[in-house]
Structure formats: C-alpha cells, structure tokens
Automatic annotation (TrEMBL), chain A:
Coarse class of the protein's main subcellular location: membrane
GO cellular component: plasma membrane
Keywords: Cell membrane, Membrane, Transmembrane, Transmembrane helix
Annotated GO MF terms: branched-chain amino acid transmembrane transporter activity
Residues annotated as transmembrane: 33-51, 58-79, 85-104, 111-129, 161-180, 248-271, 283-303
Localisation per UniProt entry: Cell membrane
Species classification: Bacteria, Pseudomonadati, Pseudomonadota, Alphaproteobacteria, Hyphomicrobiales
Topology of this chain in the membrane: Multi-pass membrane protein
Highest rank taxon of the organism: Bacteria
Protein name: Branched-chain amino acid ABC transporter permease
TrEMBL record, chain B:
UniProt organism field: Kaustia mangrovi
Assigned protein family: Belongs to the binding-protein-dependent transport system permease family. LivHM subfamily.
Location(s), subcellular: Cell membrane
Transmembrane regions listed in the UniProt entry: 20-38, 45-62, 68-87, 99-124, 144-163, 192-213, 225-245, 257-280
Lineage: Bacteria, Pseudomonadati, Pseudomonadota, Alphaproteobacteria, Hyphomicrobiales
Keyword annotations from UniProtKB, A to Z: Amino-acid transport, Cell membrane, Membrane, Transmembrane, Transmembrane helix, Transport
Name used for this protein in its record: Branched-chain amino acid ABC transporter permease
InterPro entries cross-referenced by the UniProt entry: ABC_transp_permease (IPR001851), BCAA_transport_permease (IPR052157)
Length: 321, 290
C-alpha cells in the first residue's frame, strides 16, 4: 500500500532541489550527470510501480525505454513530425508495448514472468538491431529537442535542459503517487498481496495488470524520449537486456516499493559510477558487489532502510507513550 | 541453392552443433532450476569462465585435451565456491533476489575476465587430428564441429542413463518431484543439490572450452549465450532432461534454418516461438512437475 508520508515528500523535494542546485552551480559535466539521473529516475519510478507495488518484476523496461526513444526519434527525424507530437508518439509506443506485454504475461508468475518479459524485451532489441530503415546497429543521429521557446525555455542550453528534466522527474513522481493512491493503485497493491482473493472479489486481474503495465510503459517511454533528446541520438545499445537489469539495480539500491527510493537509487548509481570511474576502470565489479551486498543485507535499499528505521523509531515511541 | 541437398545437410549439421552446445548449457541450468529452485543468471558467465580457463590451460600446457579436462574442473571449483559462499543462503529467498544477486555476479565476472585475460578476443586451435574437414553424406564438414555434435550426444545419452537407471538418478528425480518428501524419506537432499550444482557448472565449463575453438573468447560471450539458454529452458520446461533436449533442438534448428530461409525474420523467430509457448503452455513443453 502506498502512502505519501511526510518523509517521502521531504526526501523527494530535497532530491529535486539538490539536483537543481548541482545543475545550477556545477559546470557542463554536472548538468550532463543531472540529466542522466533524472531520466533514469523516471525509468526506475515506472519500474517500481509495476515491480514494487504490482509484484511484476519486469526485465523489459530497458527496451520500453528504448522504444520511447526510438518512437520519438523516428517520428521527429524520419516522419518529420514536430517534436511535441513525436513525444506523444514515444509515450504511446511505450504504453502500447507495455500493455501488450502486461496482457500476455499476466498469467505467468515468479521466474516465468521475469523470463517472459526478458524475452519480449530482447525481441524488440533484435527487431530494431536488424531494421536497416531505422539505422540498424548504427542508430539514428540528429534527434531534435522539444521547442519550448513559447514558455521562454531554451532546451539547447544544458542548464535549462537539466532543469526541464528535473521538472519532468517531479511531475512523473507526482503522477505515479497520484495513481498509486487512487482506487486503481490500491487494487493493484491488493492483487500483489493476494491475487486469488482479488479474483474472488470479482476484480478483472489481468486487465488491471495490463493497464498498470501500460501506464508504467508510458512513463518508461517518456524517459526514453527524454534520453533521446538529451543525447540527440538513439541506438539499439539503449535497449540491451542489461539496461533493464540496471534499471532493476537502481530500484533495489534505492529501495523497491517506496517510489522515492528509485529516484534516490538513480542519483546514487550515476554518482557512484562517476566517482568509481575516476578511480578504476572496473566500476561494473563495484556495482555488482554493492548489489550483492544490498540484497544480502535484507534488500531494503538506501531509502528503504531509512524509511524502515524512521518507522521503527516512531513505533517504539508510540509503545513508550 | 535451396534445392541442393548438400546445403540442407550442412545446415542440418550446423543446427545440430548449435543445439548440442545449447544443450550442454541448458541441462545444467534446468536441473539446478528444477532441483534447487535457483535461477542462476550467472550460468553464462560460468560458460565464459570455462572458455577462458581452457585458453589458459592451452597456453600453459600446450595441449587441447589438457584444457578439455581442466576447464570443466576449474568451473566446478568456482561453482563450489559460489555455492558455499552465496547460493546456499539464497536458495530460500524469492526469484527476484536470486535474479539480482546473480545479475551482480555477471558484473563481477565480466570485470574479472577483463582484469585477468584482457579485453581482446582470444582463441585456441582445435586439436590437430580434428582440424581438417571430414566427408559426411558426400559433404565436406569440419571434423571439430562433428566432435561437438558427438560430445553433446554422448553427454545427453550419459545423463539420460544416469537419471533413469541409477540410484543417484532416482534420488535426483525424487528431489525434483518433491524435495521435502525426498528429505523425509531419508535422502540427503542438501548433498544432492550440491553435487548437481557442481555437475551443472562443470557442464557449462565443458560447453565453454568446447566452444572456444569455434567462437572467439570474449568477456561478454556469457551474456550473449545466456538469453538463448534461458529460452531453451522456458520452452522445454523446468527441471527435465527431456525438456532440455527438446528445447535445445528446437532453438538450435530454428536459429540455424531461420537464418537460411528467412534472414529478415530469423532473429525474431525464436522469440515469437517463445511467446507462443508462454501463451499456450506457460509451463513449457516437458515440465518436470505436472
């Protein structure tokens, strides 16, 4: 069950403010990092919605991310649509694919679900890798950015793009929190807790699962469209299955089923990678070890552990009173 | 070209060779899966470790056959360390934690390969008497690839005999069917788990050293083979030898003939097959449990 508690609000606001300050005070490179963090945080939040609250651990979110990027890039460059419409195309593509995967896999459980999503994601990767019309493994260059000059925002400037990405992260978080607090979100949590009982109550379970996946796909697609605008280039590299794994790693490092955790995890992973890369070439090994230790330590993640400690203290205080 | 029977023979042998390689990998994965309920995403990394161990053995001892024996042993040893250090305590946690921990292991292995053996693709030569072509049904075919087919078939037959005819086989089958009941009947299920895990690792190492002369040995070779191997397991069904045989033949031949008959669709064909299986038979073709 999701509650927008005070600590959640405080941490997400602090994170957004911290990112904005880092982008404003840091140089070009800091802004690049901030944009990357914001994009991956959106992807991780979308994954946490289905995995943490719906119990559907997806290994295809990397490919949905890539589909959103390609949807945007193809609509804007090959079809020549204005970037605003291209953004809609990217989001729609992510939602469609997510909904389809959710509908097909709704009966699969546990490891079969994980493998099925892995396979569908890989199918998309292979399709795009082989599609000469989409540039194949060379990718598509020359992706434009949104034109927000009507609002006085110039996305060509790295600072303004970074602030835009942070704003998007805040919006997506608010949207996800809104959805999870609604009746729909509570039903989803109920299905996670006891699917058989929800079915007995007359809830069309597969429909809820598919819709949740479609919504999550729309968010992941949005993250992809943002990433495509950031690098102004898309390639199949964005959707190798290890990208989906990394999204899961981000969720775990921050704390699954907390919604704030994934955003914290994204910041943690990108900053860690940046710091470790300056020390050693083998940051993958460090991340791998951090991941293993996190899971062995109980798997709550950084933010999840914090929230757990705060709640435990509160309960102890209550018991004393 | 397609009317020429020799094309079909060569492609058929290619398909068989790929199938046997996939079989060596997937049989370990599927039995570990069925018996321990453990999802080892690092199985592909163990395959790469086998290939690298083989390369090192050839460098040091100069003999392919030494590598052929030592590489599986080295991988089984690595498997023992993994089992005692990590996997034993992960067995009872859910599939997600297992996926995450073994995903972390993939990262660790990738960098170990890079540190020890470097980023450059390595390779070893097939043993001298297997290096030439051989005439099969009127077609010249590389002898080493025939050796892979024969080895796969031999392992298949050997495992089939062990599982169906020996006491240890009966114990393993009992463990796969119902591990609690097997434990109640006095079987040392823990020890069976451990042995099966080590044998599965050794088979992955064997696949690696056997593949080394055919494919180049690179740090990411394990990640690349992992997805087809998982597909074999899902198509065949968890935990059964029959499933591993059927799955690897289906995937091996679909990939090989897909590439010849419909190159545009080849890459997707396997995934479409998987999607179909998941929709109509979610538990795979020959699941160990009904």
């Amino acid at each position: 069950m999701f509650h927008q508690t005070g600590i959640k609000t405080a941490v997400i606001l602090a994170l957004l403010a911290g990112l904005a300050a880092y982008a404003a005070l840091g140089g070009y490179f800091a802004r690049e990092l901030v944009i990357e963090i914001a994009t991956l945080a959106i992807l991780a939040i979308s994954l946490d919605m289905v995995a943490g609250y719906g119990g559907m651990v997806s290994l295809c979110h990397g490919s949905i991310f890539g589909l959103g990027a390609y949807g945007f890039a193809v609509a804007a460059t090959l079809l020549g649509l204005p970037p605003g419409l291209a953004l809609v195309a990217g989001i729609a593509l992510g939602a469609l694919f997510g909904g389809a995967v959710g509908a097909v896999t709704s009966r699969a459980r546990g490891i079969f679900f994980i493998m099925a999503t892995l396979a569908f994601g890989q199918m998309v990767y292979v399709l795009i890798f082989d599609a000469r019309a989409l540039g194949g493994d060379d990718g598509l260059p020359g992706v434009p950015r949104l034109d927000l000059s009507a609002l006085g925002v110039d996305l060509q400037s790295s600072l303004q793009f970074a602030l835009f990405a942070i704003a998007c992260l805040g919006l997506v978080y608010a949207l996800a929190a809104f959805v999870l607090r609604s009746g729909f979100g509570r039903t989803l949590c109920g299905i996670h807790a006891n699917e058989a009982r929800m079915r007995a109550l007359g809830v069309p379970v597969w429909q809820y699962k598919a819709n949740a996946f479609a919504l999550s796909g729309a968010m992941a697609g949005f993250a992809g469209a943002l990433a495509a605008q950031h690098t102004m280039f898309v390639s199949p590299e964005m959707m190798v299955w290890t990208v989906s794994g990394e999204a899961l790693v981000i969720v775990i490092l921050g704390g699954m089923g907390t919604l704030v955790g994934p955003a914290v995890g994204a910041a943690l992973l990108i900053l860690l990678r940046h710091e470790i890369a300056s020390l050693t070439n083998h940051w993958h090994m460090v991340i791998g070890i951090v991941l293993i230790v996190t899971v062995l330590a109980g798997g709550r993640g950084l933010y999840g552990q914090l929230e757990h400690m705060v709640q435990a203290r509160r309960e102890r205080a209550k018991a004393h009173a | 070209m397609l009317a020429d029977p020799s094309t079909w023979i060569v492609q058929g042998l290619n398909g068989l060779q790929l199938s046997m390689l996939l079989f060596l990998l997937s049989v370990g994965l599927t039995v570990i899966f069925g018996l321990l309920h453990f999802v080892n995403l690092a199985h592909g990394a163990l395959y790469a470790l086998g290939a690298y161990a083989g390369v090192s053995a050839v460098w040091m001892l100069g003999s392919y056959w030494a590598a052929f024996v030592l590489a599986p042993a080295a991988v089984a040893l690595a498997g023992t360390v993994l089992y005692l250090g990590l996997i034993r305590r992960m067995r009872r946690s859910g599939p997600m934690n297992q996926v995450l921990v073994t995903f972390g292991l993939i990262f660790v292995f990738l960098d170990i390969f890079r540190i020890v053996w470097g980023d450059i693709a390595l390779g070893i030569d097939a043993p001298a008497f297997l290096s030439g072509p051989v005439e099969v049904l009127g077609v010249a075919y590389p002898a080493y690839r025939l050796f892979i087919i024969a080895l796969g078939a031999a392992v298949m037959a050997g495992l089939g005999l062990v599982l169906s005819r020996t006491q240890i086989g009966a114990m393993i089958r009992a463990g796969v069917d119902n591990d609690r009941m097997a434990a109640c009947l006095g079987l040392n299920v823990e020890r069976i788990f451990f042995v099966v895990f080590c044998v599965g690792c050794a088979l992955a190492g064997l696949a690696g050293v056997v593949a080394a002369p055919v494919f180049s040995v690179t740090p990411d070779m394990g990640t690349q083979i992992l997805i087809p191997t998982l597909i074999v397991v899902v198509i065949g069904g968890l935990g059964s030898l029959k499933g591993a045989v059927a799955g690897s033949l289906i995937v091996g031949f679909t990939q090989t003939f897909g590439a010849v008959l419909a190159p545009q669709l080849a890459a997707v064909a396997v995934y479409a097959l998987l999607a179909g299986i998941l929709i109509f038979r979610p538990a795979g073709l020959f699941p160990a449990r009904g």
